[in-house]
TrEMBL record:
It is an enzyme of class 4 (lyase). This is Methylglyoxal synthase. Residues 1-136 form the MGS-like domain. The gene is mgsA. The keyword Lipid biosynthesis does not apply. Keywords: Lyase. Belongs to the methylglyoxal synthase family. It catalyses: dihydroxyacetone phosphate = methylglyoxal + phosphate. GO terms for molecular function: methylglyoxal synthase activity. The lineage of its organism: Bacteria, Bacillati, Bacillota, Clostridia, Peptostreptococcales. Catalyzes the formation of methylglyoxal from dihydroxyacetone phosphate. The active site is at D60 (proton donor/acceptor). Substrate binds at H8, K12, T34, G35, T36, T37, S54, G55, H87. Its EC number is 4.2.3.3.
Amino acid sequence: MNIALIAHDRKKETMVNFTIAYKDILEKHNLYATGTTGLRIQEGSGLNINRFLSGPLGGDQQIGAKIAEEDMDLVIFLRDALEAQPHEPDIQALIRLCDVHYVPVATNLASAEIFIKAIERGDLDWRSVRKTDMFK
């Protein structure tokens, strides 16, 4: 699976701890992250991360492009809901793309853990469901 990892500044430490806790699951997949988050994850967990630009500098949009190309399977985006983000339109566009392309997106630690545990059990093989079959 291709998994995107994104975290706002005040959630980066939580993301690092998350990746350390679930390293044995995550290391079996292709991991992508925005710039600073990816660097922090690499340094903290030792996981191999394909890094994009920082979110406000276009990293969110780069991940969005992978979603639009049907090349992203899960997005874990630990958002800081208590602080306004200057690139909020990019964030909303990313989440909209997840909705349009049927990509699960976790926006908090609880939903991220549910998705990771589903991956571990093999329960998140959602790509086998064809979009056209969903509406018959």
